[in-house]
Specification:
Layout (H helix, E strand, L loop, with lengths): L3 E4 L2 E4 L4 E7 L7 E7 L6 E6 L6 E3 L7 E6 L4 E6 L8 E8 L8 E2 L3 E6 L1
């Protein structure tokens, strides 16, 4: 089974930037992919998703204009570029693979922590 491994999280000051990566152990070219996050005491939420081709994307209102999701199917890698980070972006970030765009994820990574200090 394909495994997903996130990286790129860390501690950053408000206004800073981070780039998350999600490396898959096998092909994800047929899968829609997404980034989710979960803050302490809160439910996991969808941050952004991208179609298998990369042509269709969706962003949560809270990150629109600040985050960019992208993918490199040749490298089996998903990215999340985050700029203008805010303390409320602090969370564990997970990448996930779905069978189709908009369907519930069937495969999850272990997560990478993002902490934004004020």
């Amino acid at each position: 089974q394909v495994q997903l491994v996130e990286s790129g999280g860390g501690l950053v000051q408000a206004g800073g930037s981070l780039r998350l990566s999600c490396a898959a152990s096998g092909s994800i070219s047929r899968n829609a992919m997404g980034w989710y996050r979960q803050a302490p005491g809160k439910e996991r939420e969808l941050v952004a998703r991208i179609s298998n081709s990369g042509r269709i994307t969706y962003y949560a209102d809270s990150v629109k204009g600040r985050f960019t999701i992208s993918r490199d199917n040749a490298r089996n890698t998903l990215y999340l570029q985050m700029v203008s980070l805010k303390p409320e972006d602090t969370a564990m970030y997970y990448c996930a693979a779905s069978e189709t765009y908009g369907s519930d994820p069937r495969l999850w990574g272990q997560g990478t922590q993002v902490t934004v200090s004020s």
